[in-house]
């Protein structure tokens, strides 16, 4: 089996390293079975140079970037990352290549496919009750999950109009698009399947001044995260790895 690819756009090293830890722990992958690309540090380069022929699937991690931000407030790094991801998705969608984007994946894949991404359905940092749709209950990536489960969220933007080509797999009371699929093999979740309580607690401290919550709330949110019980979302990453790793 070739190596899966994790693409990170986080400019904070501690956030990136913990994201890698979370993906490995949730998926069951060994460290040498995951190639990490720090897109925040260097351009993606030619897509045909990524070695997709030997890659079972691509995972896109979360990000402090928001696809719906006005171009005037986007940094040069964000604009470059978005352009690179758009080029990559051109190929992945055309080939129906296995892809799983977590949180930021909704903005990138949703935008690429013509959906509307805006700030109408942002959710505060914490847990959200996720509900599977009928299509979600029969999708192989959600096999073994209950019809409702808690997941970690914290996002300023979300899908308000689903792409016409998308299949809705999960929603929640506060956010109508929590997971969708494009074609057969491309997925995006609004929630974070890679996050455990320790990971969320750490991100709260890292991003305390990033506008997700008032900074004075950081310690309370940190302590609440550590006391949370969120177990089911990790199965999505494990299913992704087992499904596509077994096919490679």
Automatic annotation (TrEMBL):
Keywords, in A-Z order: Ligase
Gene3D superfamilies reported for this sequence: 3.40.50.880
Record-annotated Glutamine amidotransferase domain positions: 52-197
Top EC class of this enzyme: ligase
Gene Ontology molecular function: GMP synthase (glutamine-hydrolyzing) activity
InterPro entries cross-referenced by the UniProt entry: ChyE-like, Class_I_gatase-like, GATASE
Entry keyword annotation includes RNA-binding: no
SUPFAM superfamilies: Class I glutamine amidotransferase-like (SSF52317)
Keyword Ligase annotated: yes
UniProt-listed Enzyme Commission number(s): 6.3.5.2
This protein's name: GMP synthase (Glutamine-hydrolyzing)
Lineage: Bacteria, Bacillati, Actinomycetota, Actinomycetes, Micrococcales
């Amino acid at each position: 089996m070739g190596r899966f690819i994790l693409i990170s756009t986080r400019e904070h090293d501690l956030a990136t390293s913990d994201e890698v830890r979370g993906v490995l722990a949730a998926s069951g992958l060994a460290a040498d079975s995951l190639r990490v690309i720090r897109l925040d540090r260097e351009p993606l380069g030619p897509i045909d140079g990524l070695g997709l022929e030997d890659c079972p699937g691509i995972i896109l991690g979360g990000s402090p970037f928001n696809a719906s931000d006005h171009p005037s407030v986007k940094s040069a790094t964000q604009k470059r990352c978005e352009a690179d991801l758009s080029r990559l998705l051109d190929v992945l969608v055309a080939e129906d290549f296995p892809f799983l984007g977590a949180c930021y994946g909704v903005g990138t894949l949703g935008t690429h496919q013509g959906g509307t991404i805006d700030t109408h359905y942002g959710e505060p940092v914490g847990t959200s009750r996720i509900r599977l749709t009928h299509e979600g209950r029969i999708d192989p990536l959600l096999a073994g999950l209950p019809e409702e489960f808690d997941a970690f969220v914290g996002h300023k933007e979300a899908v308000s109009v689903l792409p016409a080509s998308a299949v809705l797999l999960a929603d929640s009371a506060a956010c109508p698009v929590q997971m969708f699929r494009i074609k057969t093999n491309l997925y995006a979740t609004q929630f974070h399947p890679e996050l455990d309580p320790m990971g969320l607690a750490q991100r709260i401290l890292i991003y305390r001044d990033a506008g997700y919550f008032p900074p004075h709330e950081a310690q309370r949110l940190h302590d609440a995260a550590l006391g949370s019980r969120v177990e089911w979302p990790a199965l999505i990453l494990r299913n992704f790895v087992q499904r596509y790793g077994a096919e490679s």
